[in-house]
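User: I'm putting together notes for a lab meeting next week and I want to include a structural view of one of the chains we've been expressing. I don't have a solved structure, so I'd like a prediction I can at least talk through. The sequence is below, exactly as it appears in our construct file.
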Amino acid sequence: MEAKTHIRVVAAVVTDDEGRMLCMQRTRSHELYSSEHWEFPGGKVQEGETDHQALMREIHEEMDWQVYVGPLVAEVQHEYPDKVITLAAYECKGEKREFKLLEHLDYKWLSASQLDELNWAAADEKIVAEIKKNR
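Assistant: Thanks for the context. Below is the predicted structure for the 135-residue chain, given as structure tokens.
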């Protein structure tokens, strides 16, 4: 059996002034296990990038938005059918309130107690559990 690809991914847990977190709905894709599921925005870390650099680049590419990256919220590992990811989520603040949905279907600002209302991608589900445990 062939070894699965391992990917490092970063995610932004962006909070607003009321403490609500930005949740993004993924677009439809061939990866049925995450198609149209919810996630914290972010993406893959490219070779030579730090987590913070990758997060700022990904948010800019996906949302045309600048974020300030703060401390690590949680780091989890999850095995999907075709890959293994290590997901590192960081506390973030948006430079301003407006952003664009360039690669997502929808977004919601939710409190920690509302996070369970969404159908999360499996790795992000583990981040949600960590957030709820620590808030």
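A couple of points you could mention at the meeting. The first strand starts at residue 5 and ends at 14. The helical segments are 51-63, 122-134.

User: Perfect, that's what I needed.
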